[in-house]
Amino acid sequence: MGEHSSDLGREPCPDRIVEDLGGAFGMGCVGGFLWHFVKGARNSPRGEVLSGALYSAKSRAPGLGGNFAVWGGTFSVFDCSFQYLRGKEDHWNAIASGFLTGGTLALRGGWRSAMRNAMIGGVLLTIIEGVSMIVQRKWAQSPRQQYIQQAASNKMMEDMMKQRKAQDTGAGGLQRPQTATQEQGFEFR
């Protein structure tokens, strides 16, 4: 990992490619099914709306899922490559990966198309990563806030321990009499 690990819940890089590819395929299939279901229902003749919608959704959703999978897999390959080459995981890896993914997938259309789509991919990922960074900063606690919260938690624990110790020892420091469950070794606290 690197010094700027942004998501500790994600798989390590070689496995991440397969995970992102599958996730993108699933997302594309579900979204494609919904999109083409509505589109098929609108374009079907009266009386065959449901069957037309289902036929359209069933036949076109896997294709859109495949397109999403290609994009997600290519993006993950570039992202993992940048993480390996740079030695850290940060927002710049995702932005560069979006740029290269957009360009690579449009390369069949020529250099002009590849550059245009690379710019679009880079700009979109810049927006996504910028919003992500703003949200992280808004919801993340400052070191001072973390210290105050930890100090309050420690104080509360100390108070609870003192209270428990006071309950365990009766007046004058004598032990409370044991109950039947405590004598048998079963102690519930």
TrEMBL record:
<keyword id="KW-1133">Transmembrane helix</keyword>
<protein>
    <recommendedName>
        <fullName>Mitochondrial import inner membrane translocase subunit TIM17</fullName>
    </recommendedName>
</protein>
<dbReference type="GO" id="GO:0030150">
    <property type="term" value="P:protein import into mitochondrial matrix"/>
</dbReference>
<dbReference type="GO" id="GO:0005744">
    <property type="term" value="C:TIM23 mitochondrial import inner membrane translocase complex"/>
</dbReference>
<keyword id="KW-0811">Translocation</keyword>
<comment type="similarity">
    <text>Belongs to the Tim17/Tim22/Tim23 family.</text>
</comment>
<dbReference type="GO" id="GO:0008320">
    <property type="term" value="F:protein transmembrane transporter activity"/>
</dbReference>
<keyword id="KW-0812">Transmembrane</keyword>
<keyword id="KW-0496">Mitochondrion</keyword>
<keyword id="KW-0472">Membrane</keyword>
<feature type="compositionally biased region" description="Polar residues">
    <location>
        <begin position="176"/>
        <end position="189"/>
    </location>
</feature>
<dbReference type="Pfam" id="PF02466">
    <property type="entry name" value="Tim17"/>
</dbReference>
<keyword id="KW-0653">Protein transport</keyword>
<keyword id="KW-0813">Transport</keyword>
<feature type="region of interest" description="Disordered">
    <location>
        <begin position="162"/>
        <end position="189"/>
    </location>
</feature>
<keyword id="KW-0999">Mitochondrion inner membrane</keyword>
